[in-house]
Recover the amino acids of this structure.
């Protein structure tokens, strides 16, 4: 019904804002990541999604189409409604969430408000094939310090998410893994190995 609303910010609350457009104030529920960059009295453009229930109608708003798309994906998962969806988007950016899902990082996903282990597992199961791999942020998630035993698996997962085949990823990581290297270092060395091999 509404693609976006452009107007003046009249109220900023913890989980919602009010935008005035043509003398009408629209209350819009939003994530903290959307709200944090808004300023009172400033004109802004918020992408919106109308939520219709038997006893309520409300608007959810997003700073970008990317965030709105992630919200739609999240709320397509069983047990995740609009409120939990916005809570998850307050916990992490769409790109980081995509990386968590692609790398099957149940631990990180379970830290989001309203998300337990079972819901995190459903998110991975139902959304892994729907994530746009061009818009994810690997560094804050996959390229983290970790024990060498875990680093190898995370490095392979990261290379798979970047589009390399299982054989390429495993060979590169096996060649480049050394004791004392963290995940980031292994991935960088593996990428260099793959690129140098392709030039031969």
């Amino acid at each position: 019904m509404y693609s976006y609303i452009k107007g003046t910010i009249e109220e900023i609350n913890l989980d919602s804002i009010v935008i005035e457009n043509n003398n009408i104030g629209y209350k819009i529920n939003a994530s903290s990541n959307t709200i944090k960059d808004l300023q009172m009295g400033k004109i802004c453009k918020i992408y919106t999604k109308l939520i219709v229930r038997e006893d309520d109608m409300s608007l959810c708003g997003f700073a970008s189409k990317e965030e709105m798309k992630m919200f739609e994906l999240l709320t397509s998962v069983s047990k995740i409604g609009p409120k939990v969806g916005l809570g998850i988007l307050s916990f992490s950016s769409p790109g980081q969430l995509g990386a968590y899902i692609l790398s099957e990082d149940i631990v990180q996903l379970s830290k989001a408000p309203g998300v337990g282990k079972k819901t995190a597992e459903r998110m991975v199961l139902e959304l892994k094939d729907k994530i746009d791999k061009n818009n994810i942020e690997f560094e804050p998630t996959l390229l983290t310090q970790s024990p060498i035993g875990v680093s190898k698996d995370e490095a392979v997962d990261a290379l798979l998410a970047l589009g390399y085949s299982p054989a390429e990823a495993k060979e590169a990581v096996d060649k480049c893994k050394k004791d004392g290297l963290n995940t980031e270092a292994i991935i960088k060395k593996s990428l260099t190995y793959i690129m140098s091999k392709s030039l031969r």
In short: The chain has three domains: 4-62, 65-135, 148-198. The two ends are 55 Å apart (CA to CA). Residues 65-135 form a domain with the DNA polymerase; domain 1 fold (CATH 1.10.150.20). The CA atoms of residues 141 and 173 lie 18 Å apart.
